[in-house]
Amino acid sequence: MSARTTYRFGPLERRGLLGPIRGGQAAVVGLGMLGALALLNALPNATGAFLATTLLAAAGGFVTIPVGHGHLDEWVPVTAAFVLRVLGRRRVFRSVVPLEGFRGTGLGSRRPVIRDAVAHPPRELRDVRILSAAHRGRQVGILSSRGGRFLIAVLACRASAFALLDASAQERRLARWGYLLSSAAGTSLTRLQWLERTAPAQGDELARWVHSKRDPAIPPRGAAMIDSYLELIGTTSRVTNEHEILLALQVDARRVRSAADGALRDLLEDVERTARALEAAEVSVLGALRDDQLARALRTAFDPYCRAELVAQEAAKAGPSGHPEAGAWPLGARESWEHYQTDGSLHATFWISGWPRVEVSPMFLDPLIGQSSVVRTVSVVFEPVPPERSAREAEAAVTRDHADRELRHRFGQSQTARQRQAEEAAARREAELAAGHAEVRLAGFVTVSARDEDELRRACAEVTEQAARSRLELRRMYGQQSHAFTFTLPLCRGLR
Question: Do both 30 and 158 map to the same domain?
Answer without folding.
Answer: no
